[in-house]
Write a structure and sequence with these properties.
346 residues; alpha/beta; five-stranded mixed beta sheet; 12 helices; 10 strands
Length: 346
């Protein structure tokens, strides 16, 4: 069974074709980093316009890579899945309208997918032995959540983002230090040249809650920069070495917080398998630390490859496959996008 997935929740335009929820046949992605980097963050209106410009080109690329002729689409594709939310309203609309158009023209069933479900399932595309139940840490620009995947479509959200998500904190600290956008890869790279023990930033564990809050940590970095360089000048007076030390120390605080809460949650809920998802799961320090800690604790750890950590349509097609298989979605259904869509079981 081939599922065509569409992902346009933020600043990546992506269309993919996935077989039986596990094998990626094609996964085309158009990034908007060059557009938004000058603003040190995603500009919703520009993102929507870029999706409109890219969607047809990405669709053609995906079909070409999958070796599917548009004339045969109705015969080869079983359903179209798309991201209903959460995300930017204008960006989500582009994906929804594209999905509805394909559904109408080719009489294909529509399957709406929660963007977070995509991150929950991304590792399934590369690890054939992975099956629920498992504990998944979603760490991205807009979300930091701990979710127990009890089964396909059965979720228990035990920890959520209270304010700044991990990826958002990376972006803000990178902007503060004048390092560039997106902040995650930039800080990850410069941290390799820094001393992570140089500054002891706070660890926002929030015990006994499983929730996450990185606004205080971000503020601690701001106050440190203010104390050493002057607030008005921000990081202009800092040397490259000082920026590397601050970045490494900040990253160390984020990683330790994520790891400690994830491992303790796995033990508390008696979960033997830990899975990562979301853009921050591409962070080299986090990937190394979670593998090392899981080995020490006797837990299995599954990480998606770097290309499946960031937003992509393959993970949406994967989630769509399991939802379609279980619910048997009727043809050409109408659903409204929900920018603040919550994760729910089905």
């Amino acid at each position: 069974m081939l599922i065509l997935g569409i992902e346009t929740s933020c600043d990546e335009t992506s269309i993919a074709v996935v077989s039986d929820g596990r094998k990626v046949i094609a996964n085309a992605v158009a990034s908007q980093i060059n557009i938004h980097s000058r603003y040190s963050g995603v500009v919703p209106e520009l993102a929507s316009r870029a999706h409109l410009e890219n969607i047809n080109l990405v669709f053609e690329e995906a079909l070409n890579n999958a070796k599917i002729n548009k004339k045969d689409l109705a015969k080869k594709i079983s359903a179209v899945s798309y991201t209903r939310g959460p995300g930017l309203a204008g960006a989500l609309l582009v994906g929804q309208i594209t999905a509805q158009t394909l559904s109408f023209i080719y009489k294909l069933p529509l399957v709406d997918v929660n963007h977070l479900e995509g991150h929950l399932y991304a590792a399934l595309l590369e690890h054939k032995g992975l099956r629920p139940p498992y504990l998944c840490l979603i760490a991205s620009g807009g979300h930091t959540e701990l979710v127990i995947v009890k089964g396909y479509g059965k979720y228990n959200l035990i920890g959520a983002t209270r304010d700044d998500a991990a990826g958002e904190a990376f972006d803000k600290v990178s902007k503060l230090l004048g390092l560039g956008y997106p902040g995650g890869p930039v800080i990850d790279n410069i941290s390799k040249k820094g001393n992570s023990s140089r500054i002891r930033f706070p660890r926002p564990f929030l015990w006994p809650s499983w929730d996450f809050s990185f606004s205080g940590l971000k503020t601690a970095v701001v106050n440190h920069v203010k104390s050493v360089s002057g607030y008005k000048e921000r990081a202009k007076n800092l040397s490259r070495k000082e920026k590397a030390d601050i970045s490494a120390s900040f990253q160390d605080a984020v990683v330790e917080t994520l790891i400690e809460k994830t491992i303790k949650a796995a033990k508390r809920y008696k979960m033997n398998t830990v899975v990562l998802g979301g853009g921050v799961s591409a962070n080299s320090e986090l990937r190394s630390a979670v593998l090392k800690r899981c080995r020490k604790e006797g837990l299995k750890a599954y990480l998606p490859s770097l290309e499946l950590c960031t937003d992509n349509a393959a993970m949406i097609a994967c989630a769509g496959y399991y939802k379609f298989k279980r619910l048997g979605i009727k043809k050409v259904i109408e659903t409204k996008i929900e920018p603040n869509l919550k994760l729910q079981s089905w």
